[in-house]
Amino acid sequence: MLYLGIDLGGTNIKAAVVDGEGVIIKKGSHKTDAKRGSLYVIKDMGQLCVRLLEEAGIALDGISAVGVGAPGTIDSDNGVVYYSNNLEWRNVPLADELRKIIDKPVYISNDANVAALGEAMFGASKGCTDSIFVTLGTGVGGGVILGGKLFEGNKSAGAELGHVKLGDAKRQCTCGRYDCWETYSSATALIRDTKEAMRRNKNSAMWELAGELDKVDGRTAFTCAKHGDSAAQAVVNEYLYYLGEALINLANVFRPQKILIGGGISGEGEYIIKPLQKSMDECIYGGQQAASVRVELASLKNDAGILGAAALAVSHSTVKEQK
């Protein structure tokens, strides 16, 4: 059977027709334009899927189920988006509304959760029973797979990995608390720390690369650190220290076989993976002898959202068939 995977983002809606092995048959996208209201966005989601099916020459009867990854707090049991600040949605019955356009079972979950499931089913953690996916972008998100199943917690509100407390620098988080992990390890935090280092070090090569503070991005410190700039190296070292500490915390709680790193910062590749693996091996409780945890790059890249959403549909359909 085939499945529809939908990645609902604040900027774009991405969708794809996917088979049970994670092969994308046809994919496309549409601007979200969330200010129009939820019903218009959901209509666009449905019409995008209909168009993809028509272009691929696939009848709706060939689709087993639809999976959706959406930002925010999700009631996956009832298919409702409780709250999404990116979309400005509250209590939106996404699954029911989408079913009016695509008459198939619709399953929804948080976008980071489905990305974790996609990596476990089709990507870098395929074959693992227990894995964690961490995405380093504007914030820090993630998903947890335990015993081969997606862990969502009470009312699907769990696995908010970016909001565990990490340090004591009194950094204000967007959630209202202080010193959440994402105030240390998000791209936003990295850019903030890079700018602070540049203000303190007027001769840093980071000035030459960025030109001005407003043009600093998540690559600035890493690029200059690789070329020996001491101020940039200090920024990167501190960034990797806190990132490593957080990953070790996750490993000590869940003891997964793998922790995958995705998001924009993952573009640094082995430059971040090697020191993170070293920290993990040296500091994890009980050492590697107890049960080693591999730190690796996520593999699905830009298709993580749609493949994760498709994986959600596959997993629910499989459970339904087994019953």
Q: Count of DSSP helices?
A: 11
Q: End-to-end distance, in Å?
A: 18 Å
Shape: globular
Radius of gyration: 20 Å
Total beta strand runs: 13
Mean pLDDT: 95
Estimate the helix proportion, in percent: 40-55%
Class of secondary structure makeup: alpha/beta
Q: Numbering strands along the chain, what is their spatial order in the largest sheet? A: 3-2-1-4-8
What fraction of residues sit in β-strands? 15-25%
Largest sheet: 5 strands, mixed
Query: Helices and strands, in N-to-C order?
Result: EEEHEEEEHEHEEEHHHHHEHHEH
Low-confidence stretches: none
Task: Give a topology summary.
Blueprint: E1 2-8, E2 12-19, E3 24-31, H1 38-56, E4 63-70, E5 73-75, E6 80-84, E7 89-92, H2 94-99, E8 106-110, H3 111-122, E9 131-136, E10 140-146, E11 149-151, H4 182-185, H5 187-200, H6 205-210, H7 220-226, H8 230-254, E12 258-262, H9 270-283, H10 287-290, E13 294-297, H11 304-322
Parallel strand pairs: 1-4, 4-8, 9-12, 12-13
Antiparallel strand pairs: 1-2, 2-3, 5-6, 6-7, 9-10, 10-11
Properties at a glance:
323 residues; alpha/beta; five-stranded mixed beta sheet; 40% helix; globular
Word description of this protein:
The structure is a single chain. This protein has 323 residues and is an alpha/beta fold. Helix content is 40%, strand content 23%. The protein contains 11 helices and 13 strands. The protein has helices at 38-56, 94-99, 111-122, 182-185, 187-200, 205-210, 220-226, 230-254, 270-283, 287-290, 304-322; strands at 2-8, 12-19, 24-31, 63-70, 73-75, 80-84, 89-92, 106-110, 131-136, 140-146, 149-151, 258-262, 294-297. The strands form 3 sheets. The chain has a 5-stranded mixed β-sheet with strand order 3-2-1-4-8. α7 (220-226) packs across α8 (230-254). The protein is globular and about 60 Å long. The two termini are 18 Å apart. The model has no long low-confidence stretch (mean pLDDT 95).
